[in-house]
Amino acid sequence: MPSLRKLAKQHNISVSTAVRCYEELESQGWLVSRPQSGYFISSGSTNIQTPEWQTFTTQIQSCKRVRKKPRAQPGPLGISRMELDGKSITALDASLRRAARKVQSKLTLYPEAQGELTLRNALASHFSQYGFPLGSEELVITNGCIEAVKSALKACTEPGDTVAISSPCYNGLLELLSELSLNILEIPSLNDGIDLDQLEQHLITGHISAGLFCTTHMNPQGITMSMIQKKRLAYLANHFQIPMIEDDVYLELAHHQNQPLPAAYYDTEGYIIWCGSVSKSLSPSYRLGWVRPGRYFQQYLTHTAEVSTLIQYLVADFIHSGAYTKHLRRSQYQLMLNKRDYISYLSHHLPSGSRITQPEGGLVLWVQIPDFDADLFGRKAFESKLCIRIGTLFTVSDRYRDCVRINIGFSMTHNVKEQLDLLIMLIDQTINANHST
């Protein structure tokens, strides 16, 4: 393809606009970028298919069957996370120094219960620019997204209540529901979200006390609810006056420039409790998140804990300075490249008939493998010190025994390639062991 400068001159546009054009074409699979060489027309996407989603009739189940993930050394393929580039690290260092100076007058005070106004203002302004208008008075700052969800569940449920979740569901949420002695109702996944018809039937019968759903770039499916689905989820919450907790920790990690809106955007009565965090989009070590509790605001405040004032000022500065938006832009582009590289590798090395999600954002791929035993593979992976998440971790049923989840937050380095090679070897061993028995 023409160089960026040549393209800009040909069409009388800025170089930055030319970059965005090529990035968008690359995100759609038309172009491939090669470092120090430029952009080239893609040879075409792989023909690998996406997973088939299981249909089933939902039943209320106890979370006592929750499987704990094995304790192993963290690796690039297991935990859902991404690497920080040098520009982001430098900008964070600068924000930390500025935050340390600003926070000096508050060093002898406990943090504000609702969270520091400077951070709530920064978040409100940030998301309002995406077309999701927020007021700083609506937000509460939390110790990460899981704590935000935990406080939300405490605010609107009691032990023994039933909570509707998507299936498969992030194992950390399953463990949380088990900790709070809550029953669950797994709702099947669809290509455009979840089976809202089944959800509505259970709302009609009064089986559900609350819903808990990741709606954008779901973990582990990689699915994003369509706008129609998000609107309907908000309608169901308001019509039946049942709280729906929206875990939106992946919202800002689209692999393109089109930022989706949360289901909370369509909520008119405050029944959607919207939770977010920088744990996936920036750093899990900050343990910083937020929530818009809606009509549950007062109940929520009685269950939340204060967050480090210094960390709040650091993230507020990072947002106000414009560094966060630049960081997200670079991260979105890198994740799009990672997705392309991982899918290309997997499509050429997985057994015939395997299926891979092709998400529009987020950090994970959901892989479905024929004649596969996830539990046997999990034992082999643990013995080989491969950090990976097997499909059976994401349910309290016997489903997803033919699936694994793979993190794509790290670029395809030599170390990542070695881990993927080990992954494929163990998959082949597992299938051969199944055939021999």
Characteristics:
single chain, alpha/beta, 13 helices, 4-stranded antiparallel β-sheet, 437 residues, globular
Describe this structure in words.
With 437 residues, this protein is of the alpha/beta class. The chain contains 13 helices and 15 strands. The strands form three sheets. Strands 3, 4, 5, 6, 7, 8, 9, 10 and 11 form a nine-stranded mixed beta sheet that branches. The N and C termini lie far apart (53 Å).
Listing every helix as H and every strand as E from the N terminus to the C terminus, the arrangement reads: HHEEEHHEHEHEEHEHEEEHHHEEHEEH
Mean pLDDT: 92
User: What's the tally of helices?
Assistant: 13
- By DSSP, the count of extended strands is 15
**Unreliable runs:** none
Radius of gyration: 22 Å
CA(first)-CA(last) distance: 53 Å
- Structural class, from secondary structure content? alpha/beta
Helical coverage, percent range? 25-40%
Strand content: 5-15%
Please tell me what the overall shape is.
Answer: globular
Main beta sheet strand tally, sense and closure: 9 strands, mixed
Summary?
The protein has 437 residues and is α/β, with parallel strands linked by helices. The protein has 13 helices and 15 strands. The protein is 40% helix and 14% strand.
Set down the secondary structure blueprint.
Blueprint lengths: L3 H8 L3 H13 L3 E4 L3 E4 L18 E2 L24 H17 L14 H13 L10 E3 L1 H13 L5 E6 L3 H9 L3 E8 L2 E2 L1 H10 L4 E4 L13 H14 L3 E4 L24 E6 L11 E4 L4 H5 L7 H12 L2 H27 L5 E2 L7 E5 L5 H10 L5 E2 L12 E5 L6 H23 L1
Parallel strand pairs: 5-6, 5-8, 8-9, 9-10
Antiparallel strand pairs: 1-2, 3-6, 4-11, 6-7, 10-11, 12-13, 13-15, 14-15
Helix pairs in contact: 1-2, 3-10, 3-11, 4-10, 7-8, 12-13
